[in-house]
Amino acid sequence: MKHTNENLQPMAHSASNRCFGCGPANATGLRLEFLLAEDGGVVTLPTVGSSFEGHPGYLHGGIIATLLDEAMSKSARARGLTTMTRKLEVEYLRPVPSGAPLRVEGRVVGSEGRKHWMEAAIRDAEGTVLAAAKGVFVEVKK
To answer: 121, 93 in Cβ contact below 8 A?
Structure first.
C-alpha cells in the first residue's frame, strides 16, 4: 500500500459478532477490521487469502461484492445507523488478486429518511480501483 498520513481510527466490533464479513467470532469469515477516516468514510486494509478465490490467484466475485457491501454497511454504522442492503450494484473493473494487500473504502453519499445511498471501492497497492459499488441501504430498528 502507498503510505499515507491519514488519521485512521479503529471502529469497535462486538466480540460475539458472527458476521461473515467483519465478525471476530466467525472462524470461516473474512474478519475485516474497519477504520474510521477523517472524512467520515471507512477503510479496511485486508489481505484476503486463496480460500476465497474463484479463478486461481483472484478473488471470487461474490467475495468482491461482500467486501464492497461491508464497507458501505460500516460507513452507515460509523454514523450510528443500523442498516441493511436494499440494492447493490457492483462494477468489476479488473481482477482482484488474492493474497495481496487491498484497500477497501466506503462512504455515505446521501440520506433521505430511512434510505441511505452509499459508495465503495477496492484498490490495489498502487491505488488502482479494481472494483466499485453503489448501494441503497435502509435503516432498521434495533
So the answer is: no
Looking at residue 101, the DSSP 8-state letter turns out to be: B
Is residue 89 within 8 Å of 72, Cβ to Cβ? Answer: no
CA distances from 91 to 8, 71, 76, 120, 124 (A): 26, 15, 21, 10, 15
Bridge partners of 138? 84, 115
Q: What cell was used for 25?
A: 467470532
Determine the Cα–Cα distance for residues 110 and 34; give it in Å rounded to an integer.
21
- Please write the tens of the pLDDT for every residue from 22-81: 888 888 989 999 999 999 999 999 999 999 999 999 999 999 999 999 999 999 999 999
Question: Where does 9-139 sit in CATH, by number?
Answer: 3.10.129.10
Number of other CB atoms surrounding residue 20 within 10 Å: 14
> Residue 3 — pLDDT band, cuts 50, 70, 90?
very low
